[in-house]
Amino acid sequence: MTNSKPTGPRSVALIGPYLSGKTTLLEGLLHTSGTIGRKGSVTEGNTVGDSVPESRSRNMSTEVNVATARFMDDEITFLDCPGSIELLQESLFVLPGVDAAVVVCEPDKDKAQALAPLLHTLDELGIPRMLFVNKIDKATITVQALLDALQPISSKPLVLRHIPVQEGDEITGYIDLASERAYHYQARQVSKVVELPGTAADAFGEARYGMLEALADFDDGLMEKVLEDVTPEKDELYANLTKDFQNGEIVPVFLGAAEQGGGLFRLLKALRHEVPSAGAAAARVGADGATGTLAQVLKTYHTQHGGKISIARVWAGELKDGMTLNGQRVSGIFRMMGHDQEKVSTAKPGEVIGLGRMEEVVTGETLSDSGADALPTAEILAPVYSQAIAAVRRDDEVKLSTALAKVGDEDPSIYTGQDSATHQLIMHGQGDIHLKIAMDRLRNKYGLEVTSERPKVPYMEAIRKSVEQHGRHKKQSGGHGQFGDVHLRIKPLPRGSGFEFVDKIVGGAIPRQYIPAVEAGIKEYLNKGPLGFPVVDLSVTVFDGQYHAVDSSEIAFKTAARIAMNDGMKLCGPVLLEPILRVDITAPSEHTPKVNAIVSARRGQILSFDTRQGWTGWDVVSAHMPQSELHDLIIELRSATQGTGSYSATFDHLQELTGRLADDVVTAHNEDVAA
Ligand SMILES: Nc1nc2c(ncn2[C@@H]2O[C@H](COP(=O)(O)OP(=O)(O)OP(=O)(O)O)[C@@H](O)[C@H]2O)c(=O)[nH]1
Ligand SMILES: [Mg+2]
To answer: Which end of the chain is more exposed for a tag (fewer CB within 10 A), N or C?
Structure first.
């Protein structure tokens, strides 16, 4: 078997749960590779990644950090993704553009499940991945116990590449199972090769056998050797490790401590030798065989002074400064080092670079100079959390809508729009922190202060009884008078019918030309019924009336109709209607009982539960739930499911709400209107 070394620039995503150490790992890899001279730390706030104020103030990544490392004669661009589940969209956009992913996790069984959604996404996209068990300095469980917890979550076998060497309670180094070398961690330096410790001989033999067995499943020649107890040559071993990783058959597992630098040189070497050349990813996304220049945008951001930067992966052809892609001129090509940039004049296939001032280009867009077909891109996540926002200063409103467009451009999972029923400006996103970050961006980048509050629920009202009501508007003292007189029959209709107007006037009791005014008066009233909400599901018939040859007018009939509605509707047994949504909640099956309890406690009605299509070990619980109960549902769901639970919701129907809950809604609404 030949093992041709991958060539050309490559791109690797660092993904993994919140605070597992990805940004620290990025810093460590940049330092260990010699790309940067000084190693910063997340806690000191001086890393290459996380340089924006929203990240620094929270000690977390709030967007993808892009940095290109040079290691020996190789060039690898790292895309360090934020771990918060609320910022998942960032990862989804960059993953199509990488050759492999390093999944960073902690040696903590309780955090294992947080990996599930990410691993599933990698499966769907067919991206080779390795696991980097970080913070090995803080491990309280054995690596084997960790793998036992992680294996059920990974669809591919986890194959240990190292085993730890322990002295007392401390992990002081590791043995590389392929090279059969032992290493001793040295603070902030490349680990030192040491003699294979005798105490580790058994563990080493067992782990190495486990590795060979896993590889043998994908190679007949190796299988024969394992069965016959013949030790394979190193070359054959590395070739198998590389091939199986590249084909996504196995997930190699590396150990280390990003902060202290342990295991990073080894990881870099594995990346250098094993991450496939860009051609494999190009074939995966359908960008192979392209003629001309082809690239795809993985991320977009607006800088305060330098305009818009589009981070793009070049799939084919040479990308030159000044060339026109998708009808727009490339104004600057940049090699990225976090938010610092180095100007270059061209980029070749495989490179991930920043493109300047392509104002109309959006994240996910395929760029070409020859009108190539669009490559697949990530879906935009449906919102799960919303807040009503408003500019603190009234004269900022125009500025706010421009800034919101830019915030949405940078992060399409933030969507802001006017609610047609409540007239509030609603910002939708993936959670409380997500929206707070967006609001911080408004302040930090655009100098805009906004307030936020829980969005109003678009309640409606309907009636339960029919009445006939007379309404008269008469003003005949002095000058031109006003006269309109109507008899209305108000009748409830079944749920979902809306509003129906019936004209039953015979014999000219009301002249034809005034009938539309009667209807208009009724409709105007229906914007706000006796309880204070828009009225639906009723029929109003005008069946009699009177007019005056001189004093009658459209406005007089409109007013008469409104008077009749105002007096009559109170007698019709008004009832509040609340919007009910169909909600589908997904979570690993072991959490399903908790999900059911949450649904019930929030006045939900469970419709069904089923296994989640394509997700082994996951369920989907479907329910009808009142919209008023959904505001913070995601927060409770995530805390009950180790961050894995989510939901989608669509409007289903309006349902009567009575009793104390209804009284509270009406009181709060009227107080609000009065304020
Ligand atoms: N003990 C120990 N701590 C580490 C190690 N690597 C990172 N940390 C700490 O873990 C915390 C989180 O590190 P980050 O690098 O910000 O983690 P992250 O995965 O980028 O976080 P998000 O991007 O917000 O998901 C910081 O306090 C780091 O100092 C490690 O190897 N050992
Ligand atoms: Mg980070």
So the answer is: C
**In the predicted model, what is the mean pLDDT of residues 351-376?**
96
Residue nearest to atom 30 of ligand 1 (CA): 135
What token pair was written down for 367?
Answer: 């760029």
Q: How far is the CA of 71 from the centre of ligand 1 (A)?
A: 23
13 CA distance to ligand 2 middle (Å): 12
**Separation of 505 CA from ligand 2 center, angstroms?**
72
Q: Which ligand is nearest to the CA of 188?
A: 1
pLDDT of 4: 67
Average the pLDDT over 459-467 and give the result.
Answer: 98
List pLDDT tens digits, range 383-420.
999 999 999 999 998 999 999 999 999 999 999 999 99
CA distance linking residue 90 with residue 82, whole number of Å: 7
- Say if residue 510's pLDDT is above 60: yes
Measure the CA–CA gap between 389 and 422, rounded to whole angstroms: 13
Q: Domains along the chain?
A: 10-276 (3.40.50.300), 287-368 (2.40.30.10), 390-453 (3.30.70.870), 461-572 (3.30.230.10), 576-674 (3.30.70.240)
Q: Residue 552's pLDDT is what?
A: 94
Q: How far is the CA of 82 from the centre of ligand 2 (A)?
A: 5
> What gap in Å lies between CA 81 and CA 92, rounded to an integer?
9
Ligand 1 centroid to residue 57 C-alpha, Å: 15
| Most ligand 1 atoms within 8 A of CB, residue of 14, 31, 42, 44 to mutate | 42
Determine the average pLDDT of the residues in 137-166. Answer: 93
CB 6 within 8 A of CB 274: yes
pLDDT single digits (tens) 66-87 = 999 999 999 999 999 999 999 9
CA end-to-end span of the chain, whole Å?
Answer: 78
Q: What is the DSSP string of 307-352?
A: EEEEEEEEEES-EETT-EETTEE---EEEEETTEEEEESEE-TT-E
Report pTM.
0.93
User: For the residues 296-316, what does the mean pLDDT come to?
Assistant: 93
Q: Which residues line ligand 1 (CB under 6 A)?
A: 18-24, 42-43, 60-61, 82-84, 134-135, 137-138, 257-259
